[in-house]
Amino acid sequence: MLSNGSVFGTATMLFALAWSCSNSNSNSARAQRTGGDASSGTGGGEAAGVMGASGGGAVAGNATGAATGMGGNAGGGNGDANAGTAGSAGSPINGSAGAAGSGVAGGAGGSGGSGSTGGAGTAGSAFGGAVGSSGNSGGGQGGAGGDSFVLSWQDDFNTLDLSAWQLQTFTYDGNQAQFSTQNASVSNGVLTISLSAAPNGSAKPYLGVEMRSVKTLTYGKVSARMRFATGSGVVSGLVLFYTPFPNCDWNEIDIEHLGNSSNTSQLNAMVYTGTPNPNCTVSVTPTQDPLVTNLGFNAETGFHLYDVEWTPAGVKYFADGLLLRNWTANVARLKLPETILLTIWASSAASWAGPLTASSAPASADVDWIKVYSYSG
Hints:
By secondary structure, the chain is mainly β. Helices cover 7% and strands 33% of the residues. It is built from 2 helices and 20 strands. It has helices at 4-25, 350-353; strands at residues 33-35, 46-47, 63-66, 149-155, 165-167, 177-179, 184-187, 190-197, 206-217, 220-227, 234-241, 251-258, 264-271, 287-288, 291-294, 304-311, 314-319, 322-327, 338-346, 363-375. The strands form 2 sheets. The protein has a 17-stranded mixed sheet that branches. A hairpin with a 2-residue loop joins strand 17 (314-319) and strand 18. The longest helix has 22 residues, at 4-25. The chain is globular and about 50 Å long. It starts with a helix and ends with a strand.
């Protein structure tokens, strides 16, 4: 038999525990998000909760150690489920998925978060009940972190829509191809842009393609599923470009694949750092900031996803969801409306793209689809 003092102590403890459980119910959906290593995209996420007394609901747990992947912040777990209601984990971007919460009193554990190019979500566990389902493995598009993008338009290339695209016919110094309306075609839902030998007597030895979107974009996201071209001296790319001519205030964003290296591409941003003169008669010379980077795959043998995210804070370049570069230098000057270009051309800069040879053409690049998103903050 317990003494009166023991009974009083036990009663007090039970009252405090009951108050704690009741107070936790009003905050059960709340979980604190904390980030891991932003550069490596490593580190696990774990949602911790405290089981309530006498079958009561669990206190919402904190998500701690959630990984922050390259290209976005990790979502913290939502904590443990209340009285059998499943709790779900947050969705990390480019990192490892956060662990799910645990269900109490027979409820199923929450499902694991799905990571974008990250690890699989951890399965939720049930206290006295079913086991929650595991999260999806990472994959797909790269994340935007805290930025928001809204789909504006897309082209699945079921036809060659000349109301959405303009086929150019000009050329420029350093380009050994004349752009042609004949070198773009659509078949089976795929756009093909080609580099071919020009007819005898032509001003340039090759014919290429520059397709310009009719619509412009000022901040946003461009996603394209593409296969780039192979061939020494051959350049194929996804480009955003401020297009007036002469260009008195240059803005340009590039993913350009150089055909002399199958697994690398150049990520470039170009702005004019001088004082713009709207009455210029000759285009200004931009300041370039190129970075040739290893993609981690052969860009010429199959389709891969390429994303450009352009915000007032900078430009992020992704390949298959992996952040390759976050450009912020001179970003305040990158603010002009840009058209979207799909290009293939022949470079005369042998030290950059490789020398043009007899096997450089014919060559082609393919585009399965393109999606354009506006920036909503």
